[in-house]
Amino acid sequence: MTDQEKAVAEQESRLVFGRFDETTAYAIGTQLVEAAKAAEAPVVIDIRTPDRTLFHAALPGAAPANDLWARRKSNVVFHFHKSSFAVGLENGRKGRTIGPDIGLDLALYADHGGSFPVRVKGVGVVAAITVSGLASAEDHAMIVAVLEKALA
């Protein structure tokens, strides 16, 4: 495991919610919107459970494809219960792909950074917070920065 993979795993184990509901999703979503606006980031922000969208925003400059990327990255979170960035880093280190090597449909899954698991203490992964529109590491970092403040 690389140092970067260890750092991401540490983030995932540390950034855990006591509870998570629609109100929490809205608060985190609006904080992400403010962070994206401050950075003039052309992103889509999506917070969803496996079967329901809790928050969605498209900022100026975001492309329709960002919605598709957000969905594909959040599918990775729900499949692996890890951030899409962590899965991508591991696959890169192992020289494998999420498609042919693991057997997932590339039209439905993307192991690029930017989707983070919403883990509730004593429950597990209940949702995914996704940012799409920047480089993988930047999408991931935006989520982590907001969660670090929100969960402090």
From TrEMBL:
InterPro entries: PduO/GlcC-like, PduO/GlcC-like_sf, YBR137W-like
Superkingdom of origin: Bacteria
SUPFAM superfamilies linked: GlcG-like
Pfam families: HbpS-like
Identification of the protein by name: Uncharacterized protein (UPF0303 family)
